[in-house]
Specification:
alpha/beta, four-stranded antiparallel beta sheet, about 25% strand
Length: about 270
């Protein structure tokens, strides 16, 4: 029986001719456990010829990319390569100058600003280098915030979902602590819980371990894989840490606004 990857309940993904281009960086052959059986039904992200300029500076120069549901993909490259710009566009925080972006088959580049914001709140989570927790709110309240902003009317369910996430991330004894009372690793795990509270299909992480020591950085990246395996999230991680990047299912490299390489660890390849 075919399994569907739709998280919005809209039209099924209909492959476009350009998806057969050999220039696209496709996801690997689906593996059992968390990827679907149908190649096109599994596509969580499909980007075609994305460009972005700021004045005379062209930051993205035609990005083609495909990412499947349940993948953990790392994006590496030197500063200024365009990694964060790409992440912001994939996460609908910014718009490309040209190109097309499909998230689970929906062309979000055609959405209005308001529709993009609603889509982002419901289906996308973000983790940044700085945790950006609100200082006057507890860990539990910080995690609840995206659901409250999204006007989730069931406050009891929101608090339970947030509490369950914090418990899962080992923060059961920190629910009512302010950010200033948490360690750096605890603050970032709280930020991860906040990114997951609306049960997003995709989580974008921009240098999520940049402010953590090596032990906490390793723990955070292992956490991403644990959450993927248990909850089925798709993770796209921008990082300068090449050791951590190699832990991903795929490692993509950017240079001067273009994708220039892809690497899949041997142990991640399907038989």
């Amino acid at each position: 029986m075919k399994r569907r990857c739709d998280f919005v309940g809209k039209k099924p993904f209909r492959p476009q001719p350009w998806l057969f281009s050999s220039k696209i960086y496709p996801s690997p052959k689906p593996r059992s456990g968390y990827l679907c059986g149908s190649f096109f039904q599994c596509k969580m992200i499909s980007a075609r010829q994305l460009t972005r300029s700021y004045g005379a500076l062209q930051v993205l120069k035609g990005i083609d990319l495909e990412i499947a549901k349940g993948e953990v993909v790392s994006i590496v490259g030197a500063s200024g390569a365009g990694k964060s710009t790409l992440l912001h566009i994939l996460g609908t925080l910014d718009r490309p100058d040209a190109g097309q972006l499909l998230l689970n088959g929906q062309d979000v580049t055609a959405f209005s600003t308001k529709a993009q914001a609603q889509f982002r709140n419901r289906h996308i989570g973000f983790v940044f280098q700085f945790h950006n927790l609100l200082a006057e709110f507890t860990a539990l309240e910080n995690v609840c915030m995206p659901a409250w902003i999204g006007k989730d009317s069931d406050e009891t369910a929101v608090r339970k979902r947030a509490t369950d996430l914090l418990l899962r991330l080992g923060l059961g004894e920190r629910l009512h602590h302010l950010p200033s009372e948490l360690s750096g690793g605890e603050q970032q795990r709280t930020a991860v819980a906040r990114a997951l509270v609306n049960q997003p299909a995709i989580v974008f992480a921009d240098e999520p371990s940049g402010n953590l020591d090596s032990a906490n950085a390793q723990e955070l990246h292992r956490l991403f894989f644990q959450l993927r395996d248990e909850l089925g999230h798709t993770f796209i991680i921008v990082t300068h840490n090449d050791d951590l990047a190699h832990l991903a299912d795929r490692r993509l490299e950017m240079r001067d606004g273009r994708m220039v390489g892809e690497e899949t660890p041997p142990e991640r390849l399907s038989p």
